[in-house]
């Protein structure tokens, strides 16, 4: 059993006191603490990640999912969602099955993986970005094969390629969260998808129609404008590479349940060099991962670095912690993580006021953070 005295994140603000926990939180007792006591926040939740530390989960090799899951707690991530990329239907099924096998073999020192995020293949062919060039038209039989291959919890797709709603119907029937990206949707199509069809947003600002302040000469508000105006929930990559500080701060003000994802690839947490992503060769250079043509290919982001960047922009630490954990749990309907409360998982982090990690606890088990 562990006991920590510090500034405890309860709901959305810090309360001084003591927290006792093992696999689950057993007791929270308010009380005075020293001025230099640590800040205690829930473990990070990453709902969109392709790999890390040299491991590329999009290969479908179980060892890559195991390697990624084992590395992530050193960055404070205690729950993650292995994420695919577009491939042929047959290859997608193989990859999903391989990821699922890896998830089931995760050791106790690895982050928890409750399910999979499928990014594609039902994407707009003109908006593939760094995705492998395997867009697939709306096809209910293909969708069912993908959902049958593993525990899919999220699917990213382009709603405009599903005008009859055959994919939407299948996702709803399977209880799968549906999100927009790699989309050429018009403002009207995006508005309908968000308000009427309940779509969330994948990596806001990236691989979607851009925004303009009025409809003129073919310009529209697009998916971005519709998301900022109407979305209640959206994921965003807080790395300062995929978007500017101002774009991030705008989204924080506009979207009630914004949550941070890394969209990390194998180069994240690894040395500069050459890696793979969805069968493609990518290069990590400085703080980004790039395709051969110089375009961005997923990210090199670690969630602990995201927290520090959020705080450096003037976002209150309590709010930043909710962005990196609480909101993700809420949108997934998980009440056993993403918050400090009696009975929830013993997934806790301690940090200083700037967000730098000091200690990581995974279901009560202490994990040394990277760099320590």
Describe the protein's architecture and organization.
26% of the residues lie in helices and 26% in strands. It has helices spanning 62-71, 89-104, 140-148, 166-173, 187-195, 222-230, 245-254, 303-312, 317-332, and strands at 2-10, 13-21, 25-30, 39-42, 44-49, 51-52, 55-56, 77-82, 116-119, 152-157, 177-180, 200-201, 233-237, 257-261, 273-277, 280-285, 288-290, 348-351, 357-362, 365-367. The strands form six sheets. The chain has a seven-stranded mixed sheet, covered by helices on one side. A four-stranded parallel sheet has the order 9-10-11-12, covered by helices on one side. It has a three-stranded antiparallel sheet with strand order 15-16-17, with no helix packed on it. The protein is built from nine helices and 20 strands. Helix 1 crosses helix 2, helix 5 packs parallel to helix 6 and helix 8 packs across helix 9. With 372 residues, the protein is of the alpha/beta class. The radius of gyration is 20 Å and the shape is globular.
Number of strands: 20
- Secondary structure: helix percent: 25-40%
Helical stretch tally: 9
- Give a short account of the largest sheet: 7 strands, mixed
* Cα-based radius of gyration, to the nearest Å: 20 Å
Instruction: Write down the overall geometry.
Output: globular
Beta content: 25-35%
Provide mean pLDDT, rounded. Answer: 96
Distance between the termini: 23 Å
Strand order of the largest sheet: 3-2-1-4-18-19-20
Low-confidence stretches: none
List SSEs in N-to-C order.
Answer: EEEEEEEHEHEHEHEHEHEHEEEEHHEEE
Specify the oligomeric state: single chain
Helix/strand class: alpha/beta
């Amino acid at each position: 059993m562990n006991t920590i005295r510090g500034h405890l994140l309860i709901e959305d603000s810090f309360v001084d006191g003591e927290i006792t926990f093992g696999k689950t939180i057993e007791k929270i007792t308010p009380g005075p603490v020293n001025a230099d006591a640590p800040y205690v926040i829930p473990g990070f939740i990453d709902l969109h990640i392709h790999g890390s530390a040299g491991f590329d989960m999009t290969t479908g090799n179980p060892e890559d999912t195991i390697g990624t899951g084992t590395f992530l707690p050193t960055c404070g991530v205690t729950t993650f969602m292995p994420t695919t990329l577009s491939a042929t239907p047959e290859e997608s099924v193989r990859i999903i099955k391989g990821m699922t096998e890896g998830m089931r073999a995760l050791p106790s020192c690895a982050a928890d993986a409750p399910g999979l995020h499928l990014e594609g293949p039902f994407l707009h062919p003109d908006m593939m970005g760094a995705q492998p060039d395997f867009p697939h038209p709306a096809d209910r039989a293909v969708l069912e094969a993908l959902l049958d291959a593993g525990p899919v919890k999220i699917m990213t797709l382009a709603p405009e390629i599903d005008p009859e709603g055959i994919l939407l119907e299948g996702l709803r029937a399977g209880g799968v969260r549906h999100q927009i990206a790699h989309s050429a949707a018009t403002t009207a199509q995006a508005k309908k998808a968000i308000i009427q069809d309940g779509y969330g947003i994948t990596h806001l600002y990236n691989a979607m129609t851009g925004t303009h302040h009025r409809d003129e000469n073919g310009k529209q508000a697009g998916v971005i404008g519709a998301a900022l105006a109407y979305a209640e929930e959206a994921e965003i990559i807080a790395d300062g590479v995929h978007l500017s500080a101002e774009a991030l701060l705008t989204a924080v003000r506009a979207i009630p349940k914004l949550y941070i994802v890394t969209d990390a690839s194998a180069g994240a947490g690894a040395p500069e060099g050459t890696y793979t992503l969805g069968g493609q060769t990518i290069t990590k250079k400085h703080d980004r991962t790039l395709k051969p043509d110089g375009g961005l290919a997923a990210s090199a982001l670690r969630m602990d670095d995201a927290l520090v960047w959020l705080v450096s922009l003037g976002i209150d630490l309590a709010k930043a912690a909710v962005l990196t954990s609480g909101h993700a749990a809420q949108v997934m309907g998980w009440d056993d993580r993403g918050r400090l409360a009696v009975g929830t998982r013993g997934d806790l982090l301690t940090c200083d006021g700037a967000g730098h990690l000091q200690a990581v606890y995974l279901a009560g088990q202490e994990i040394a953070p990277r760099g320590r």
